[in-house]
Amino acid sequence: MINGIYSAATAMQRATERHELIAQNLAQVNMPGYRRLTMRQQTFEASLSQADQQLLRHNSLGTSVAQQTNDFTQGPMERTDSPLDFALNGDGFFVVEAQGQQLYTRNGTFQIDAAGQLVTADGVPVMGENGPLTMPPDFTPSMLQVGADGTASVNGVQIGKLKVVSFPDPHVLSQRGVTLFAAPSGVAPSVSTATVSQGTRERSNVQPVTELVDMISAVRTQEAAQRAMSTISQAIQNYTRQ
Amino acid sequence: MLRALYTSASGMKAQELQIDNTANNLANVNTTGFKRSHMDFADLLYTTLKQPGTNESAGQTTPTGLQIGSGVRAVGTAKVFTPGTMEQTGSALDVAIEGDGFFKVLLPNGESRYTRAGSFRIDGTGQMVNTDGHLLADGITVQDGINLTKISIGSDGTVTGVTEGTPTAVTQLGQIQLYRFLNPAGLSSEGSNLYAATAASGAEVAGVPGQTGLGSLRQGFLEGSNVEVVTELISLISAQRAYEINSRAIRAGDEMLSTSADIVR
After folding, report:
1. Most B CBs within 10 Å: which of A6, A13, A28, A47, as the mutation test of the B interface?
2. What integer is the mean pLDDT of A1-23?
3. Which of B17, B73, B182 to mutate to test the interface with A (most CBs of A within 10 A)?
4. N or C: which end of chain B has fewer CB within 10 A?
């Protein structure tokens, strides 16, 4: 019976973790290129090895978090007409390089730094096919033209091509920060067929309705588990007082 | 769970900034040469609860790890330098820039500021100044006897005046130059429609209007604000709703905390 209390406790714990995840998604509801986080739960036993499972065959120990992944469905497109806003239509990521590591993002709200490089809002250089894209000295943003294939030209002179890559299964990527993703070692990106659209930004793919429904469910799951726990606790109390 | 409360609070704060920014844009919907600004939000670091790829038990590794972020942070507001609408004013000293570039004016202390509000006047000493009385850096002086209504400013910035008399004489008064920056979004807004150069914007590059990618001048016109009311209202609505949703998340978190507190009575 005591086991039941622990099972209920894990259920409460999972519900609060789900709420944390939902809060995170809702906080980023207006963040361009944000990919919502989802959580999959599993029975606690499933997270154990075979041998451990044998030992615990007759007990149920509650739930554990199996996996936290991002949902990579495309978000809605917003037209901004800013020459430094880019969105990707289709599967793919822009490539940025932070501290020597290649990271991937769908947040294409870029800027030009004082050295003339195309950078993200955080100042991380955006990669072209041949390294960072550097603008000529007499550049102003309205001169930049980027075609659907990512070819960037300034006043008709080609300066490079935005690097756009894709992954057969983007779910292997792990989130770094909010809109940046890192690939695990051994997973190489492939060429993407996504088209680049200048003057557009991709909004967050968080849907407030879904998140709010999930939130209600998390709150009530936690409440139900708490009720179960107090019922068991009461049963134990009755038993010990007999 | 407390972390969720702070995450939602940061989401609310970000939306507040967004609303402040939208309000400022809307307030300046009729300001000459005003450029709307937009908020940029940056990544916040993640608290790693479980590292991806760590050992779970007996040779199993976690595929993705458990990381929960701690919210949103605004990195800054960037001005959007898209052109505003051209309004005809008929005043000889109103000049709009069609394309890229800024006028340069000098503050009383000699510092340079840049502006796209081309509404100029002539001060008591005949010098061309902006509406706040700051001198146009190109030093254009109108001598006595020149009819102010007959000053002409060419699309390339040459300023000529007509002296009354018979016959009338045409005098060259000077040349207005335009200045531009590698990263105009990095200019710092100094109020009164003036911008100052910063390390992020790069140094000024001077040029003749209409050449090397600079815009050309149009006399008798003023550039209106580039704020689009509809876009701003939509961003206002979306910020307001996001604010509301984040506050609901706080309430839910509060409810869950109270449920937990009820375990022990």
Report:
1. A28
2. 86
3. B182
4. C
Q: How many helices (H) and strands (E) does chain A have?
A: 3, 19
CB atoms within 10 A of CB B55: 10
Q: What does the alpha-carbon distance between residue A185 and residue B83 come to, in Å, rounded to a whole number?
A: 46
Ranges of beta strands (E only) in chain A are 37-43, 63-70, 77-79, 85-89, 93-98, 101-105, 108-112, 118-120, 127-128, 131-132, 144-146, 151-154, 157-161, 164-166, 174-176, 180-182, 190-191, 195-198, 200-202
Contact A2, A233 (CB under 8 A): no
Looking at CA atoms only, how far is residue A148 from chain B in angstroms?
A: 21
Contact B252 A179 (CB under 8 A): no
Amino acid of residue A224: A
Three-state SS at B225: coil
Supply the pTM of this predicted model. 0.75
Which sign, positive or negative, has the C-alpha torsion A43, A49, A50, A52? Answer: negative
Task: Give one DSSP letter per residue of A113-125, joined into a string.
Answer: -TTSBEEETT-PB
- The mean-pLDDT minimum among A44-58, B123-137, B213-227 falls in A44-58
- The shares of helix, strand and coil residues in chain B, as percent rounded to the nearest 5, are 25, 35, 40
C-alpha of B125 from chain center = 33
CA gap A194, A88 in Å, rounded:
6
CA distance A192 to chain B (A): 24
Tell me the backbone φ, ψ of residue A2, rounded to 5 degrees.
-60, -35
User: Cβ A111–B78 below 8 Å, yes or no?
Assistant: yes
CB contact under 8 A, A155 and B184: no
Cβ B196 vs Cβ B114: under 8 Å: yes
Interface predicted TM-score of the whole assembly (ipTM), two decimals: 0.73
A112: Cβ contacts below 8 Å, ≥ 6 apart: A84, A118, A119, A135, A139, A141, B182, B183, B185, B186
Give the minimum alpha-carbon distance from B227 to chain A in angstroms, rounded to a whole number: 12
pLDDT tens sequence across B4-44: 888 888 888 888 888 988 998 999 898 888 888 888 776 54
Can you read off the two tokens belonging to residue A230? 């107090």
Asked whether the beta carbons of B201 and B81 are under 8 A apart, the reply is: no
Contact between A120 and A107 under an 8 Å Cβ cutoff? The reply is yes
